[in-house]
Every structure is written in structure tokens, then in C-alpha cells.
Write a structure and sequence with these properties.
The chain is mainly β and 106 residues long. The protein is 0% helix and 58% strand.
């Protein structure tokens, strides 16, 4: 398990990946963004060799990483996190706000 700020990357068996995943949308700079900082505009981005960011077709915010080579998580305000080959589920930290549960604003 790896954490970078408000993003948690949890390893899972590739057999446990949901069926029918598609490539997740990339941002305007063609980056694989796991979470975009609403407060700063900075982003948690997956980089590396043979790295795929996937999601169910109808849920672009439910993300999975598949790394076949080497991978890294990078962010302007955090040190890079190395990721070993394998499959991962991406979890965004949430916080309680009176009347709602929301994603943490980075």
C-alpha cells in the first residue's frame, strides 16, 4: 500500500480487477491524473513504462492502475512514490463536512 497526500494506492490481484475496464480519460496535457488538487491545481500523476490507468466505462472517477514495467506517482508538493509491477486500486481520501462526505481538497 502506498500513500501520496490524499491518494492511496492499494495493491490487488489482477484477477480481482473488474471486468470491462477501459482507459481512463487523460487531462489536456495527456497525463494520467489520479487526483487533481482543487485548491492548488497540482495533480497526482502516474508515470512510467507500460503503465495503464483504467476505469469502468460509466465511472471515470473509479480508478485502477496496471503496471507492467515500472511506475511512479508524482506530485509537485510530494516526493515521488515508486510502484512495482502489478494491479492497484486508487482510493481518494474523504473527509466529513457538515451535511456531506467529500473528497479532501489538496
Amino acid at each position: 500500500m502506498h500513500r501520496q497526500g490524499d491518494v492511496l494506492v492499494v495493491p490487488l490481484d489482477e484477477a480481482d480487477l473488474p471486468a470491462g475496464l477501459v482507459a481512463a480519460p487523460r487531462d489536456r496535457r495527456n497525463r494520467m491524473v489520479l487526483a487533481l488538487g482543487e485548491a492548488t491545481g497540482h495533480a497526482h500523476v502516474a508515470t512510467g513504462d507500460r503503465v495503464s490507468l483504467l476505469c469502468p466505462p460509466d465511472e471515470p472517477d473509479r480508478l485502477y492502475l496496471v503496471i507492467e514495467g515500472y511506475g511512479r506517482l508524482v506530485h509537485e508538493e510530494h516526493g515521488p512514490v515508486s510502484l512495482s509491477p502489478g494491479a492497484y486500486r486508487v482510493v481518494r481520501q474523504r473527509e466529513y463536512f457538515p451535511g456531506a462526505i467529500r473528497f479532501v481538497a489538496d
